[in-house]
Amino acid sequence: MNFDWSEYLKLADKLAKRNDEASLRSSISRAYYGVFCIARNILGYKNYKGKDVHQKVIDKLKQNGSEFPKKLGQYLDELRRARNKADYCEDLVISKKFAQRMFELSWEIFSVFKLREP
Length: 118
Fold this sequence. Notes:
By secondary structure, the chain is mainly alpha-helical. The chain has 5 helices and no strands. The two termini are 15 Å apart.
């Protein structure tokens, strides 16, 4: 049985409602990976192992003529940058408002992809 990546979104939602910075940072990370993996699988990159898979998925969504709204690529790109900051920038304070905004972006992406899942 395959893992249900939307479980990461459920966890991200819970974490974004907490007040400690570790939870807020983790929320952003889980929100990104939840929607990234859903997008990756739907776009046909599930078995692609290249280090550039994140950029490939984002670029595919941003392409003109893609079956998905271009804004999804922009949202996923914004989430990825936020995830990088949350995971690696120890001198940056992550606010609850920022974490909740990133969760909202992930939910917008998820909502579109959920309609496309088999």
